[in-house]
Every structure is written in structure tokens, then in C-alpha cells.
Amino acid sequence: MRGGSDEGASRIALYGLRGMGEVRRGDDLGKKIYESQRKEGIPFDDGDIYVVAQKVVSKAEGKYVELEEVDPSPFAESLAAFLKKEPKEVEVVLRESRSIVRARLGVLITENRQGIICANSGVDKSNVGKEGRILLLPEKPDRSAARIRKSLESLSGKKVAVVISDTYGRPWREGQVDFAIGVSGISCFRDYRGKPDMYGRLLKVTNIAQVDELASSAELLMGKSRGVPVALVKGYLHERGEGSRALIRKVTRDLFR
Amino acid sequence: MRGGSDEGASRIALYGLRGMGEVRRGDDLGKKIYESQRKEGIPFDDGDIYVVAQKVVSKAEGKYVELEEVDPSPFAESLAAFLKKEPKEVEVVLRESRSIVRARLGVLITENRQGIICANSGVDKSNVGKEGRILLLPEKPDRSAARIRKSLESLSGKKVAVVISDTYGRPWREGQVDFAIGVSGISCFRDYRGKPDMYGRLLKVTNIAQVDELASSAELLMGKSRGVPVALVKGYLHERGEGSRALIRKVTRDLFR
Questions:
Q1: How far is A1 from chain B (nearest CA, A)?
Q2: What are phi and psi of B15, to 5 degrees?
Q3: Which chain A residues have a beta carbon less than 8 Å from that of B8?
Q4: How many inter-chain contacts (A to B, CB under 8 Å) are there?
């Protein structure tokens, strides 16, 4: 099962799954996804890849913080004043972070507790459903992905993969795209290093972050303001694998922090 | 034609187009794509989006440099020694660049003449087909995209979009994904700023770089070692627009250069 086009697959289909209703703490997301897919009459196949928006995973795991219960530290207060942000929100971001990568121009970029570098440690106020409430990332997104995968596999009897995605900005480029923050059942990369190119020359550096590309392609269906929290990808051949840690560049290999 | 899922589109299909044969200087890529699609029996529709690998665009435009004709400057010599790279190759990278963003750990990140920040100004040795030859980016990728779009539109009678894509690494994350470097017939962004979220709260920052996501999704079919230089995306609703310049973050808004 080498990647993408290499073995003749020349077609991929993406389906947006709706009709999951509001997600509540304790919900079995695998079951909700399974039922939504069955209702829409989309077949279950080995090799299916489910891209699940972080937001519904965090909601199912009850990862809320009530801002009124947050007491900002003096450091959070002064950082918030500098960035013209809300001190309680900055306090939550700092609690979710290991280090600050940049704090300037009203932007707070951190390395969060999951090791991901992004704005505000990935905490979020939109689509949370209650004013004064903030949604954190899942505690262990890889474990969340594995749980959803196992639930889906036991219900459908198929071998599938799950990618949990979130929307972040990038250096150098305007606009946001989706990235993979939790992975189960698929390798993070499609690795061409040491393979010959079309002319027999060895490829030195190409190592495609296929799960990030899958997250981005799924976002095209998920959007931000409508209830499409899951996209199903069919027809993309891939190797199996577990975990998203390999996606995170070690600080000694990173020229931008 | 608001983006993605907003108006009921819940399915996207991606097709890899092969059978284009070797691309040569002067080739009409629009015509080659049209013929490949017709041969494969895939229908032509308004709103189709063609993602075209930079490499075939550069080949059609004859953007080759013969390394034996390159005379490296003293600066290129010393930078090459520091990075343990080939002086002639560094000279070509510098000629294609406006500024150096980082030069360390054997990596040379530049702002290239098109304004894109990436390794080696985007110049490439793999899949070029001749030792000692380097392929540059198209001179004006937006113009290249417009040319291909017009050729496809005149042959098919349909209104389509063209995105030229290339594969780059990212700060903070391992692996490469595809980005849009030339755009015609589609807006770069799907803009949610000022729109309400599911709960009526105004979204402040979400502005999806949809053409980058389209490039990444197309890469899933294009791969690196096989001849799939074009992917066709069907079913993704979008607003029309021209050019890729809006994707490039102004230096005053960029915390990472």
C-alpha cells in the first residue's frame, strides 16, 4: 500500500458528513460518525480515512474552561496589555503552553503542551456555544484519534484511519489551512527519500506530510460556519501507522524558533 | 458561489490526469490537459479546478539552467562552503532570490523573485531529466496559470480555474506539502471574517487559504515519482478571482523573517 498515485489510484473522493447534531461531553464520536455515514448511504470500506475537526473531539472530551473561573497571573496581565488581548484568555493560553515562540503585533504564538506551534496554543472561542467559555485542544490527540478509529472499526468491521485536524495560520503566507494534530491508522508521511525520480535520479528530500495534506483537503468540505465536522476520504492508498509526533520538527532542526 | 460546504456541496472528487507524455518547451499545457481528460473520459464542467505541478509549467516554458554555464560569485562560493552545497547551484538560487531568510544547517531559505519564501528559491534538480541541469520556477506563475486556464476554457467551453502548485517544507513541522504559487479563475481565500459562527458569534480571523488546500489535496494524487502532473478537482464551489499575490504575507505582518 504505497502512497497515493504510485499504484494506480487515480481518483479520490471526499465526503462531508453532517447530521451529527450537537456534540456533548462523553459522546462516542466513532458511533456518531458511523451512524451519520450509514444514514447518508455512503459505503464502509477498508482504507477509508476520517478527518475529524478538533472542535468536536474537544467537545466530546469536555475540554472547556469557564473564563470567570480563571485568575490571570501578573505575567499574563502584562503580556495581555502588550498584545491588547484579554488577560484571562492569555492566562489560559499560557497554561496550555510549554514556551512562547513569538508575542508581537497582537499575536501570541506558542509551543503548546502537545508540542504544536500555533497561535494561542490552539485554544478557541468560536463555535463553542457559550459566551465566556473557551475550548482547549484534546489532552492527547493521538489517543483521541485511536479511540475514534477503534470505535469505527468495531462498528463497521473495516480497517480505517483517523486524522484529527485543526486550522492554523502559517509564517510567510496569509490565510489558514488545516493541519493534522492527532493521527491513528495511517503513517504521517509518504516517504520518497532514496527512491528514484522519473529519470532514475535519487530523490533526496521529498517526504510528504500526507496527513497534513489530508487535513487540508478535508477542510475544503468542513468549512467553519456550518455543521460538517467530519470528512471521509476514499481511494487514497496509504501505509498504516500511529501517532503524530513525527510531524513536529525538533528544535535543533528548526530554523524558525 | 460561496466556499465549500456552505451551500450544500458535500462531495468533492479528485482525478489524477496522466498520459500527458514528456512536456517540452513551447507545449500548450492547456491543450495537453484537455486531451488527457478527454482520453480518460472525464466530463468537462463549469467550476472545475485544475491543479498543475510547477515542474511541467517550467518545462513548457523552457526554464532550464545548464550548470556548466554558471560562474559562481565569491559570495556564492563562500555560502556554498558554509552550507556544504554546490557553488554553481547556490549561485542559481541567489540569482532567483530577492533576499536570504535563513542559511544554516545545510538549508538555504530565500524570498524568491516571485516573493515566495521557500528552500533554494524553488529551483529543482529532480525529475529534470538531464544531469547538470536545473529547473527554475515559471517567471510569472499567475500569468502561466491564466494562460493554461484560457486555453482550457477555449477548448472545453467551460469556466474553470487553474492553480499551479509546488512542494515546500514548513517551519516547525517535518515533511513537505504542496502550496499554490500561481492562481487564475479562483479567489485565494474563503473569507469568514465578519461572518457569524454556528452560534451567531462573529468570526474574527478565519480566512482559509483555499488554493493552498487545493494544492495539498491535489498532491495526494500527483506524487513525486510518477507521471501525474495534473489533478482535476470537481465539486468545490468557489468565488472567482485572479492572482496569488494576496497569499504572500507582507514583511510587516510576518513574525518569522
A1: 14
A2: -120, 135
A3: none
A4: 269
Q: Distance (Å, rounded) from C-alpha B237 to C-alpha A118?
A: 28
Say which amino acid occupies A66. E
pTM equals 0.94
ipTM > 0.90 (yes/no):
yes
pLDDT tens for each residue of B8-25: 448 999 999 987 888 999
Identify the three-state secondary structure at position B11.
strand
Chain A: residue nearest B197 by CA?
A225
Output the furthest CA–CA distance in chain A (Å, rounded).
63
* A168: Cα within 13 Å, side-chain hemisphere: 30
Give the integer Cα–Cα distance in Å for A232 and A156: 14
**Are B128 and B64 a contacting pair, CB within 8 Å?**
yes
CA distance A224 to B191: 10
Which set of grid coordinates corresponds to residue B119?
A: 528552500
Q: Which domains does chain B have, with CATH numbers?
A: 4-55+138-253 (3.30.1330.100), 64-135 (3.90.1660.10)
B14 φ, ψ (degrees, to nearest 5)? -115, 130
Encode pLDDT of A109-158 as tens digits. Answer: 999 999 999 999 999 887 677 778 999 999 999 999 999 999 999 999 99
- Chain B: nearest CA to A196, how far in angstroms? 7
Decide if A201 and B127 are in contact by the 8 Å CB cutoff.
yes
Give the contacts of B181 (CB within 8 A, at least 6 positions apart): B54, B114, B116, B122, B137, B141, B164, B165, B166, B244
A53 in Cβ contact with A135 (< 8 Å): no
How far apart are alpha carbons A53 and A51 in whole angstroms?
7
